Amino acid sequence: MHTRAFLCLCLLVLCISSSFATKSPLKSINVSKLKLKTGTKLQTDLAPAFVNNMPNGGAVADKAGLPDSVKLMIGAGGIYSAFLYYGSLQEDVFRYTASDGTQFKQAWLLQVLEAAANVIVGGIGMQVTGATKGIPKKMFAVSGFTQVSAKAFTSLALANGLSFPVATLAKSGKMVPVMIGSLLLGGASYTVREYLQVAAIIAGTAIVSMGKKKGAGAPSSTMGVMFILLSLVMDGVTGGVQKKLKAETKKVGISPKPYDFMFWTNVFMCLTAVVISGALGEVTTGLSYITANPEIMNKIVKFALCSAAGQSFIFFTIANFDPLVCTTVTTTRKIFSVLLSIFLKGHQLSGQGWGGIALACGGILAEMEGKMNKSKKA
Predict the structure, then answer these.
(1) Residue 225 lies in a domain
(2) Which of 41, 84, 148, 279 is least surrounded by CB atoms within 10 angstroms?
(3) Does residue 25 belong to any structural domain of this protein?
C-alpha cells in the first residue's frame, strides 16, 4: 500500500475515533455478551496501558452514528490490515540485503522512527480530545523505556537470525516472565490450565524453531533466541510498571485519556531510542544505509505509519467495544501473521514444524478463551 494512503488512513481513523471518544454520555456496550469490570487489564501489540483508564473498561457514545457491526468492521479490519502489514514490513526490513551484501541491523534507530510517527499521531489525537493536565511523567518515562526495549529486542532477534514466525509465537508467551516473577516473589497463583497454556506456547514455539525443512534456511541463532527472551523479560517488567502507573494516576486523581498514553509513552520511547541508538552509533550508520538503499527506506516509512495507524484502530475499537473484543482481534491477528509469513515469505516447515504451529496456536487460543470465561463470570 502506498505511503500516502497509509498516512491519510491513519489521520482519518484518528479523527473518527477522537470524535467518538469525546461524545457523551457514555454507556457500556455488551458485545457478544462480553462484560468486563472497570480496570480490566488488556495487553495489545502497541497500546497496552491506556485500556485500564477507559471509562467502564471500554465504552461507546450513545449516539455514535454508525451501527455496531460497521464500527466493528472498521476497528477489526483496521487492526488486521495495519498490523498484518506491519509484521510483514518488519520481517522485510531485517531480511533485506543490499547489493553489497549488507543488511539493516540498526534496531534502535528503527524504534526512533516508529516512536516518532506515533508521537505525531498521538499529539494530534491529544489536541483533538483535549490533553490531561498534571500527568505523572516519571512513570511514563519508565514505561516508555521498558516498552521500547521490548520492541527493540524483538527487532534485534530478527536481525540476528530468529525467524519471524518463531519470534511472533514466542512473543505470545508474555505470561512466562509474569509467572516466573510471581513464583519467585510470591503474591499470585495460577491454575493447572494456565500452566498448560503457557507450556503449549513454549513447546510449540520450540518445535517450530527446530522444525524447518533441511535447506530451508539457517536455524534460529543463539543470539536471536537470547534477544527474544530479553524482550519477554521487558514485557514482564512493563506489566508491573503499568500497574504502578495506573496506581500513581489514581492516587493523584488523574484519568489520562488514551491519546495521552499514546503520546507520552511514545515520547519517552523515542527519547530512549535516540539516546541508545546515538550511543551505539546507529544514527549515522543507519541513516547512511537507509539513504543508500531507497527500497528499505520506503519499507521503514510504511512500517512506522502502520504502527501509528494500528494504535489508532486499537483506540477506535476500545472506545466502542469491551476491551476483550480488542484482545480477541489482536490475539487472532498474531496467528494470521505467523501463517502469512510462512506462506508468503518462503518459510518451509516439516510436519514437526506444523505440529508446533498447531500446539502454540492452541495454547494462544486457549488463553484467549480463558479470558473470555473469566470476563463472563465477572
Answers:
(1) yes
(2) 279
(3) no
